[in-house]
Amino acid sequence: MSLALELKGGRTRLLHGASAAAKLVLAVVFVLPLVWMFLSSLRPVAEIFQYVFPLSLWTLLPVHPTLDSYRHLFRDEPFGRYLWNSFAMAGGVTVLDVVVSSMAAYGFARIRFPGREVLFFLVLAIMIIPFEALLVPLYLIVRGLGWVDSYAALVFPMVPRALSIFLLRQFFLGLPRELEDAARIDGCRHWGIYWYIMLPLSRPILLSVALLTFQELWGSFAWPLVVTNNANLRVVQVVVATFAQGDAIEWDKIFAALSIAAAVPIALFIIFQRYYVRGIATTGLRG
Amino acid sequence: MLPAMAGLFLFGVAPLVYAFVVSLHIYDLVNPHPPFVGLANYRSLMGDQIFWTALRNTAIFAVMLVPLQTTTGLTLALLVQPSTRWIALLRTSFYLPVVISYVVAAGLWEILFATPNGPANSVLASMHLPAQFFFQNPAQALPLMALMSAWKWSGISMLIYLSGLHEVPVELYEAAEVDGAGAVRRFWAITWPLLHRITLFVLVLNTIDAFKIFTPVYVITKGGPLSATMVLVFYLFREGFRYFHLGYASALSFVFLVLVLALAAFQFRILRAEPPE
What we know:
The structure holds 2 protein chains of 2 kinds. Chain A contains 15 helices and no strands. By secondary structure, chain A is mostly helical. The longest helix of chain A has 38 residues. The termini of chain A are far apart. Helices cover 73% and strands 0% of the residues of chain B. Chain B is mainly α. The longest helix of chain B is centred in the N-terminal third of the chain and has 31 residues. Chain B has 13 helices and no strands. At the A-B interface, helix 1, helix 4, helix 5, helix 6 and helix 8 of A face helix 1, helix 3, helix 4, helix 5 and helix 6 of B.
């Protein structure tokens, strides 16, 4: 074995070692805070910061595991109501968006109508426009409609999502036209083709779009914050954001609320992982 | 088709036009006839010290976050390259912070970096380092925000990079290996040049996202300490929904919008290509 090869082998081994170490460190950095959060929600209130200092195994693991923090959260706060509001908003937008955006996407992909390119350019433009810039005018429009403090305000302005239209159009454009031609000969019109051919073929992408929409709406914060004042309409994210601002901070409840708010999208993600990756990787757009 | 278009117009296009119209008035929800003031809102914006502070902080935040998030995203993508079961688990763990909401991520970091006895200071103490004030220290708050956002969003950059890495022909690597190129050499000679377009695309996205920073500022610092984390979107939120200066907030929104679009256009000019699809 020549010296050069020997050196190369050593370097490669070193690289492998370094990459294994990097993987371990990064995995810890990305996951440990979340694990600590979930485990802390299983502590009795007196124990929450008891073992943070000095560092030990008990900094991470609860000494007396209990579900009290969750019990207190649902007992002292209308947290069930907040959860329902979050599900209603995210679920409502998701269902409406899938219906409306898939129709629009079909139109963009398969129907020739005047102004199609201009309209589609508009969809792309709206995808780039930061929602934060629309916060004030959108609030005024919704206020003009008399929707402030209503479910309508939480759902309707969020539909349709330009990203959904874009993703679905991409998918429809990739479908072979032969199927539709056959259907057309059999006397199907656009509605029939959309309903009997396109939708059944696009179940996976519809699921991807629905998951992305749900995840984003579940986590949305700025819009519900400005458009609802009524406590009955508060969503989980707004509650969590304002929790730590009272006089007596009840840490156990905060950890329970954080954990529930995080558990919903994490569970969906782990169950439907494949669909998430497909949805995002094709556009590279943050949902 | 029609309902979709109606929705897009009412909640997408109309607000843009409306924002500009409102920004020409003194608009406060109380006065039924908001007086028309022309460009006065924009003029006072130019002389507004807080606006310039917010703009500077937002730019500094972006300068800190964008390179960090982009390089982290690429590093993660390279680490999870060969797909095995363990690697898939690793990829999932890198992506988890993306899935949880920004509010949860911010709340969690607020607790982790609590002073004086939070977990972060506990870790520092175990290394015999002095305790820090973190989010309560004007010099540390904004960099820590950038670190938090990088933790939260690097998984997205990783995914985009992964889709780019999938398109690198395997034959190239095989040929390089036959020629005796090591792993480092292969990266710089093959992978990096081919990822050029993806990198620019990731940079554009991350820059736009960095400029939109709002949620963690609201949750953790409310723009403090000493305006150290006062950023554009938080400022327009405060003007619009705490002080109800809606005309002024609309002017702010419009300036913010033009700024972000100009940035995106500028970067896409450099891109000179369609975004990868």
